Amino acid sequence: MxxxxxxxxxxxxxxxxxxxxxxxxxxxxxxxxxxxxxxxKGRADAIAWVEKARTIKRTGEGVLPKTxxxxxxxxxxxxxxxxxxxxxxxxxxxxxxRYVKAHPEEYRDQxxxxxxxxxxRKAFGDRNAATLKSSEIEAxxxxxxxxxxxxxxxxxxxxxxxxxxxxxxRRRDLVEVNPAADVPLRDVGQGIERFLSIEEEKRLRDVLxxxxxxxxxxxxxxxxxxxxxxxxxxxxxxxxxxxxxEQYNLRWGDVDFERRIVRLRKTKNGKPRNAFIIDDVATALxxxxxxxxxRRDRSVTQPNKSPQDVVFAKADNKKWWQGALDDANIKNYxxxxxxxxxxxxxxxxxxxxxxxxxxxxxxxxxxxIRYAHFAPSQVVDAMAVLNSKR
Length: 390
Description:
There is one protein chain. The protein is mostly helical. The protein folds into 3 domains: 11-81, no CATH class; 89-182, DNA polymerase, domain 1 (Orthogonal Bundle), CATH 1.10.150; 198-295 and 308-381, Intergrase catalytic core (hpI Integrase, Chain A, Orthogonal Bundle). It contains 15 helices and 8 strands. β6 and β7 form a beta hairpin. α3 runs antiparallel to α4 (112-124) and α7 packs antiparallel against α8 (221-240). The radius of gyration is 32 Å and the shape is elongated.
């Protein structure tokens, strides 16, 4: 009769007499069991696993597995292979994207944050989030900026997204650090405010009007309506000062012609505000209502998710807007610059800066002061108190 092998604590036959060996250890109060196969080799592997785990548990020099699928690693092995129980950057990415998609009211842009997160995941997904260094992130920014000729402002947006991953991870108690926060912002300069001159506005309006006139009201009624819609989009933008997202999220229920205000529920800082309806804007809005255009479904299987009562029948003006600018020979001008033009023209007309701040919805007067130099007459009038009284 063969001699029975010496009993080793934590090593056992899965079923007595089967010669199938397993091992178990207790990690953080929970038993972790792992199978090692049949015969002497299976038993020897089980013993080696248990003894290695006990040594690490006694010395603290290594990582104990929390599941059977995780290996037992010494400190030296962790240095080479990484901590298998560590939270990865990929995990932070998944958690953040899940939160963004679940909170569209907080993250109105559901496209670009996930796109940037996908890039981060591709580059750093397998890395231990706690050990990723600021220098590594900065070096990656240098690399992608050079390869793709990215603007500094674009890199700064990527940095902001990277930082948000870690901030969200901290809120979820997944990490305690944020290496992205220590990456310096790229210099974008003070920026040059671009305004539409009276002559440029005339050329642009001529282009939009020609587009309207090119479509016969009898033979091409829908195309003509769309062309009229574009001119009215521009009119409302230029004379209301609404931001692009505020304008294209506007719903008829929030338009109050009697009080001459529109209630903007989705704004840059997340707080609702009022925009104001002057006569030209009121006329444009009523013409839009009379057009009776609706946002179309992309296809039968992709219905449009916009509310039924949105004011503007288009949610994206990029294509026609750039085409109109090109036809009018207007360079380096963005849709957002309509808002700059709105503010500067008010200041040029002598409107008090606090009124301009209210009209534009600036959270701080500091944002409005950028336009103050466009009203030198106000400065001269104020300085008149120094004139000699004769």
